[in-house]
Predict the 3D structure of the following.
Amino acid sequence: MLELVLGAGGLAILFALVLIAVVVHKPSGSPKMVEIAKAIQEGAGAFLRRQFTTIAIFTVVIGIILYFATTPLTAGSFVLGAILSALAGWIGMAVAVRANVRTAQAAHEGIGPALNVSFWGGAVNGFAITGLGLLGVASLYYWLGNPALIIGLAFGASLVSLFGRVGGGIYTKAADVGADLVGKVEKNIPEDDPRNAGVIADNVGDNVGDCAGMGADMFESYVVTLIAAMLLGSSLFGALSSQVLYPMLMAGVSIIASIIGLFFVRMNKGNEKTVWNKFMLGLLVTAVLSAFGFAYFASQLFANWTGIFGAGLIGLVTTILIVLITDHYTTRDGKPVRSIAEASQFGAGTNVIAGLAVGMKSTMWPVIVIAAAVGLSFWLAGLYGIAIASMGLLSMTAIIMAIDTFGPIADNAGGIAEMAGLPEKVRKNTDPLDAIGNTTKATTKGIAIASAALSALTLFASFVEVTGLVTIDILNPIVLIGLLLGAAIPFLFASYLMRAVGSVAQLVVAEVRRQFKEIKGLMSGKARADYARCVDICTRGSLRQLFMPGLIAVLSPVIIGFVLGPAGLAGAITGAIASGLLLALFLSNAGASWDNAKKYVEKGHFGGKGSDTHKAAVVGDTVGDPSKDTAGPSINPLIKVLNTLSIVLAALFVQYALIH
Amino acid sequence: MLELVLGAGGLAILFALVLIAVVVHKPSGSPKMVEIAKAIQEGAGAFLRRQFTTIAIFTVVIGIILYFATTPLTAGSFVLGAILSALAGWIGMAVAVRANVRTAQAAHEGIGPALNVSFWGGAVNGFAITGLGLLGVASLYYWLGNPALIIGLAFGASLVSLFGRVGGGIYTKAADVGADLVGKVEKNIPEDDPRNAGVIADNVGDNVGDCAGMGADMFESYVVTLIAAMLLGSSLFGALSSQVLYPMLMAGVSIIASIIGLFFVRMNKGNEKTVWNKFMLGLLVTAVLSAFGFAYFASQLFANWTGIFGAGLIGLVTTILIVLITDHYTTRDGKPVRSIAEASQFGAGTNVIAGLAVGMKSTMWPVIVIAAAVGLSFWLAGLYGIAIASMGLLSMTAIIMAIDTFGPIADNAGGIAEMAGLPEKVRKNTDPLDAIGNTTKATTKGIAIASAALSALTLFASFVEVTGLVTIDILNPIVLIGLLLGAAIPFLFASYLMRAVGSVAQLVVAEVRRQFKEIKGLMSGKARADYARCVDICTRGSLRQLFMPGLIAVLSPVIIGFVLGPAGLAGAITGAIASGLLLALFLSNAGASWDNAKKYVEKGHFGGKGSDTHKAAVVGDTVGDPSKDTAGPSINPLIKVLNTLSIVLAALFVQYALIH
């Protein structure tokens, strides 16, 4: 049945190509719109090129080290993983920066056509990720016949994902905050105003952060979970067992289900509520169809198939539950967000306190759901069941990425409409899409976090298999020490990312201010701003800020592994997963709820726009920006890199560690 | 040698009585000062009375449950633990609210006399805690001859400590924030202005939160670590072994060392720097003397004494290191705090981001130090070594509490000076003490957190002994699930506490506003504010807000224990310790650094007081208040209650849990 899997992977690529053709053939509007879109494309391209150069250097260096320290096959699959991940990111973004202007053009006709273009554009990202991921894994397995030989692929994907998430995350928020601080606050001009030199960088940021960064993160989770599940199946039941095949079949099934689910999102007329309902419908259809597919193949492959099928089903249900929980805590008109808006009446301090409280509280239910998923799937099908549940959750990556990536495209479309001076009705059609994009971004981020935690746990099980640890006993002080140190890693990592945004944003502020001062006629609209310089500042700044977080991610498992040995490292990984899961949920959800609390006030509550309450709410939103779009989601690749790197180097730790 | 221990405990009580006599015989100043001090005393008394009533109800109910569910001895020692803890808190506070006015009076003569009175007043708290703690434990052991029978004492202390820290923490910040929001922000009158109806409540808060709350926390850590170390010694070497005696001897030795160390803090003239240096000198003298005592008794009791002595030494060194690290991250003129002040130039949002980043970063070194202490002490003397290291850290509680409690006394003295309209020079002498008090508060809080983590780890080892768990294997999904759920508990708990302060503060704001509006002549100084009402609002409000956090702390181990069984609960405790340690450090250090960043700006940097930078810094300080004084430190009793309650109910979990 491996041919079926390869076929499904190919189908995903084919479908992505069809979607690209459909989107690219949509009209792209007036010359002015095309010119603006071109600037965004160039900026995004410039960022990716420079990022890829950095990544390429790292990949070559690490690849050479792996070549000598492990096996040539590991080194080779590592390079392939890095290339595939980069390719997926590049395809997704190349389409997004073309779909944005076409969405703006389609918005002339109504909200429905605009939704369709942006959603299809986003879907390309989803199918590129799942298609390349599944094809890469399945064909390597087809060739080598042993999942243990392709773990390098997972580490390659992890490394690129770390760069993509962190670099993109810093870029997008630095540009956003920097442009706003001068434009909205100092000069009192609207968002996306073409006189603001940072405005193109801001739109580029949406693409490199929310689209390529998120894509790299999900690609990593997808590939990593797939490989980890296969590894586990292999070590428990043999390298050619049905247990190795089944995770790939699940991925294949859900790709087809996602294609069908996609057609349920089509819309002609509607509003925010309708769009959200359409998304939920698409998700539900995909989940139900996937469930049938899971059941069919499980019954074909296994004698006692209900347990394994049940575990997969738990994964699908977990996806839906995480969406609903995240939505509860972050949606604009919900109780938690309103509590933040209310607190804003007493000033910025109470607004921030309320947001921190909502963020902390929002961690409990996702953790309970994840813990229950782990427990139930283990009860149903043992350690392998946990891997299958993770795969169930991640199998829906295609449709989830479509729902996610549509957001930055719609956001960009609104920006282009503003900059190109399109009629009022266009923004009226893109604004609700932008708003719903903010909500879906928060919920898909919740899924990305849950998936990162689950895939890390699956990987962890593989790490244990590889090192031959029989128990990881918390009563062993080495494990306990590792656990404490590991739990601190996400905090240290996040602290650098919170600062990074501020540092780069300050450079943007200085540049935008300089241009307003030095370029004559800019404020009156007679001269044109030098957008490229801001794009360049963001690109270089965010890549420079990558250094420390990258070092922490790569060095900490190496140091802990060589000093405390495999048991200590196992403790550290566990600690990092637990604290990382909580910190990521806390930062992401707090950020999203601050954002929506501001939007709630802007809808006219508690004095509306311009009131003191609004000013207080803006402070929370500023704090939330790096929390939700940089530090929070970057913890995902962090915990996965800790894991994949640990597995890749496991044999060395077993042999050379100081303490055993 | 148990007599020596009892003697040292008695000596601590005696010394506390001498200090009380010395402090109370100091002149208490003008009638106006006495009147103000009386109001603070009454407010603090009213709070403690009502809090004790609540605690008494809980104690009786839980005592009855324990009587039937466990043994009468456990129930009895539980009640004794609760009473001793309450008594220690009451003594410490009763002296603090008398030392404050005498400090203000002494400040007429200079900074030296003011320091002496406030430090001696604070020392009463330290010796009451250590004296009652050591006497309680040692005499019960003297009577029963088995540490396993007195675990109830630890749980009693835990419960009161939870109430004391949480209730006091909410009170102090609600009063502080509430009074400032109306006084400083709306009415533009200085802090501690007698026209502000919330001003007495604010001063009461310093006593019930920073003095009684912190005292209850440290009393708990002290008693709990002592018992846990003895328990471990007992189960490893027998109930009458030297290993059971040694922790008590350590406590006794350090009491005597602390008395001597105390005399090195005396000062005649000086400034902030001198005071800090004196404190460090006192701490160092105490540590060195303790080390000699540890060595002497270890060499008397054990053949291979160097390992056990080494573990105790590690505890002492850990104390000093934690002080230095916390000081680095939170001191006013240090680099981390300056980075927050600099960020404030760009607005409140960047100020908050910078503070969050400093808080996150500040977690790494304390965790490394604690992990190293655990590892080294285990290497030296096994599991028992970890307990001895914890005891080494906690043995210095007396002098640490003296250094800590002097802060709120000096703070109060400044408030009384302001309210009584004392000459300028008095505030000039109390202000530097107040400032240094803020720094010492942050560093002693660091020690309280480290001690809570270490005592929780020691307790954890006892829990494992009691339940007879041979391993706690992370590869067991039940353990893993427990770990994830446990890690979420501190986040949920903290979220309620962050909100609690805001909720009660809003009631204070409403009341202070009402009084300004309805009491004629209040603003012009002709009429007197109704302080008692604000005190009452804070008292009732903070006790009501205790409910949910208290429920979380008490119910979560019960639910997890009965559902997931001892192994799952062990995982949960580990998770809660790891994430609780990080969250407590993060919140406390972020809060302290925001506070000092504001003070740094107020010293004239970046525009000084009244500038936009200052306004931004004030926002961070507001966010920091509940972080550092309510939510952060309340996590200490939380993780200890989880542990002690788990031990007390361990037998039930073993028998009746759903999953094994």
